[in-house]
Structure formats: structure tokens, C-alpha cells
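Here's a chain:
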Amino acid sequence: MSSRIVFETLRLLMPYDVVGVGKRRFGGAWDGGYVLLDQLDPAQAVMSFGVGTSVAFDLDMAERGHDVLLFDHTIDALPEENPRFSWYREGVAGVSDPSEQLFTLAEHMQKLPEGARNPILKLDVEGAEWETLTAAGPDLLARFAQITLEFHTLFQLDDPAFNAAAQVALRALAVHFVPVHVHGNNFGDIGMVGGFACVDTLEVTYARRDLFQTVASQTLYPTEYDTPNFDERPEFPLWFYPFMPGSDRCDLA
């Protein structure tokens, strides 16, 4: 695969700074915390896909007054309860498979309270994010105000089939959203893909374009809001394209 195609796909992950709005980490240190723009209304419901062993993010959101809908078909019970939690032993996928307790994002969104506006989406589903986003499409995703998620297996961006699928998902997001925070998950690795430095797993927060004003990034990642996912390894400095300030002016010769 040509470096140009990898370059253009990575460009879709380029973060921007938000004018006049701060950030806040929700959830504890290490794995299980996510960064959102700190412009939240308790009336915004939260849809949280991928629970595992930690509900730190979800507890923080509930304590701020948000109703949280939690989804995970791989566990038998939540590790901790809260009166604002509604848990579903179901997962999310691009195509429904009721026999495996998997349903599309569109189907899950029918569980939102009637009249829910600008909910928050957290998506940490170990690779199913690509098909989930593609199946949802731009118009459904535009119902959310912010989306925080993990992209997995970015080391496969030099594979033509995976790159094409990733571009479809990333372009579905790009219609209405812009990345506003990025963080390399150090449970994974950092290496070279198609001639570019890359992390295999990347945490990204997206903000809907019509709700926030963004400008070219002047931020060095990781930031004060970030902590290593794995406390026995150092953070991954994202001091390279497309995360480094000035990346918006980069092009291939």
C-alpha cells in the first residue's frame, strides 16, 4: 500500500483545539478513564459500550447527574452498581445477531429516554468500533454531542482492505465530528506503519462540529488529563503526524 493512502487515513485522526471550553477526565487513573470536553448537562444521557472490570467512567458520569446506559455481553454482572445505571447484557456490532446478544447502535439507541437530546457515547469494544460506526452512519451519529472511543489495530492500516474499512468509519464520523483529544493506549504498542509512526490502539474524543468552535491544534499529547493505561509502562508521546502541532500544514512531497 502506498504511503499516501496511510497518510490520508491518519489525517482523519488529526486533533483540533476547542475554543473557550476546557477538558476533564472522567474515571480514575490508569485504564477506565476518558477525557471529555467539560461542557456537559446532567440531562445528557450516556451510552457506555464495553464495561469489563471497570465502571470508573460511568460512576463519574452518574455522580455528575447523568443517567448511564451500560452495555457488555461479555460479563455476567456489573463490577459496581449505581442508582443511575441501567445495564444490558448486550453488545454492539455492525449487524445484529440476537443469538450472540449483539445489536446495532441504532437498535440500542431505542433504549434512550424519550426526547433524549445530545447524549454522550463511549465506545470501547475491542475492534467492533469500525463496523459499528460504519453501520450507524453520519446521521445517526449526529444525535450525539460527544463521542469518546478506542480505535484498535491501527497497525493494520497498511493492509488495503482494513485501511479502506477504516476510512469508511472515520469519514462517517468526520461528517459531523472533529477529534478534540487523543491518547495512545500503552497496553498496545507503538511502531511504524506505511512509513509513519503509529500506535496500535488510540483513544479519541470527538465533538460535534455545530456545538463547538475548533482551531488548529497547539497541544502536545499526552496532556495533564491523561494517565498511562498500563502503569508499568511509560506514556507514548504522540510527537508525530497527525498529532503534533503543525500537522495540519503537512503534506507528502
Notes: Helices lie at 3-11, 56-63, 105-108, 129-141, 160-174. Residues 3-248 form a domain with the Rossmann fold fold (CATH 3.40.50). The CA atoms of residues 110 and 116 lie 10 Å apart.
